Protein 1
Amino acid sequence: MPSRADVEALRSANSGIRALAVRDLEKFWSYVDLSKPEMARNALLNYVPTLVDRYGEVAATVAADWYEDVREAAGVRGAFVADMADLVARERVEASTRFGAGHLFTGDPEATLGFLKSQVVSKYVLQPGRDTIARSAARDGAAWARVPTGAETCAFCLMLASRGFVYESEGSAGSRSRFHGDCDCAVVPDWSDDPRLDGYDPDALYAKYQEARSASAGKSTSSVLSELREQQGIN
């Protein structure tokens, strides 16, 4: 399976891609005339989806190369070409951009920039890379896990990371393939019968999840996550 150094290399690459995309967004933002909200919104609607496409393609390419490299290093037999995922649908990016641009009309334009950075660009730029690894693992007959790599893991990511390495078909990952803005979790594949990764203990994460589930007022996901946040002191 990939080493912790391999996972860190992927995290670092994704962080760099995200930083470049945010840099370009901030540069574009500096030229937007915020005194004309409607024109500013239209400019963003034209620019942001193109920006997301550009760096999303980079993220997918980096992920495909990474998957093939770690697969070869793991000694998996047979040739394999990673399956690059589609970019995030332009309509989806446009809808999120339009929503964030609402702040342009409320006298708080900087809130628009903050939203676009964390909830649109950072989120959608990295999604094709994550999907590339998950899709490739499904076609390759490999298991994959959602591995936290940041300084703090939020309740939502902890819950999904607690599932460990699971074999899934391309269309069955469901919520495990969802990532929030500024998420540092990595999709990590494994081809062995007993996957183990330094610094990642899904059993310990699952114990925390079960403790929160037992103590929650209800059994809904939202109530369990609320209890998990309270117990662990996380977001």
Note: The mean pLDDT is 93.
Protein 2
Amino acid sequence: MAAAFDLETLVAAVAAEGGPFNLSGAVLHPDGFENVVLETTDGWMLRFPRLENLPFERELAILDRVAGRLPAQTPRVEFIGGRTRFLAYRKLTGAWFDREAYLEATPEHRDVLAASLAAFLVAMHAELSADEVASIGIPAVNHRLPVRAVLKGMGRLPREYRPVAESLLERYAATWTAGTIPGPRVVLHNDFHTWNMVFAPPGPVWKLDGIWDFSCVQVGEPTFDLRYLDKSPRDLLDRVAGHYETLTGRRVDPDAAVVASRMEQFVDALDTGRFEILDAASASWELADSGC
């Protein structure tokens, strides 16, 4: 694992490996939750896991299995660090998601994008067999862990946020912990949000062209893979859900996906002690629930 995650330390670590990288002018992308990324001027993406227990080898195995088998580009690992743990792949290029442009797009153009996202999920959810899941060691999502985290952190939660927590716990209990979410359980990408994607061509008709970050892959209900589309905006989540149901004949629950997303945001606030971010989050939840 890297000794530190600043630009100078990571450039030195890569240089020590003697890889085929031009490190002059490399740019650090430090905002990832699981990984820090170093982007080189000659088109390499070098990803360093932040935590010792991050399933680095498992992600390598998954990337190897899905290469060329999904309806979007995925990273093809061409170099693995020997002294420092990192993987390197050629940058996936394309257009970034533009929320405002999406909102201005016609329903037909929105559906083109949503259909491409649903098609990826359909393929991802069917790609790995039960034997492959077992041999790679892909774990199942434990939906009770967020509840435990919130209950454990209630004593630290300022009084004004407790009604929000109680309401969220009630909604989460009625869906995820109650086991009422439609299945079957499938292999989830589990980090399916637009910041992990590129699209082609750039507007007004977008299609998913590339997706990365397979470090969170787990087994769970298809609905769980929709949760990070909650703010993309909600219209996109609903359209993807509709196309997914049409393609598979399986039901998904967009409202339950939203509850799962909000529960994660709440747990993140508890973990970091940054309760002030709940002000903006709860305000956005109220706005969304009002239909705006």
Note: The beta strands are 27-29, 35-39, 44-49, 77-80, 87-90, 186-188, 197-200, 207-211, 218-220.
Protein 3
Amino acid sequence: MEGNKNIELREFIPLSKVDPVFYETVNYLGAGEGGEKAYRLLTDAMIKSGRAALAKTVTRGKEELVLIRPYQNGLLLHTMFCTNGIRDFNQVRKGETARVSEEENRLALGLIDQMASEEFAPDTYRDEHRERVLAFLQEKGKVSS
């Protein structure tokens, strides 16, 4: 596959079967000029089927595995790690030798219950660092004007 803007669809799978650990990046995927009908057809069919597409593409001379999935009546393209790009979790210390009492478990579960929500509300979270940088840049712009 040579470097181009083509995406080669390989198979359609249930999105629920993809572990998020394989996601690397996400991009909005729009319809190319002249591809509006194909884009709409693919999007609608994927929404109805409940499936995502695994595909291959070439970016900056590198072949990449990607996952395409419907999102807000359009498509997202996730670049994916291949299996050999995922660290073996057995190499990570997970505190197996730590002794935890029943009381500590009860307290930890109580804390989770106190902080629990039934929905993910991304609007409640802000990138405060970004906001500070933008405010700083705006302030600098005022000073240098």
Note: DSSP finds three helices and five strands in the chain.
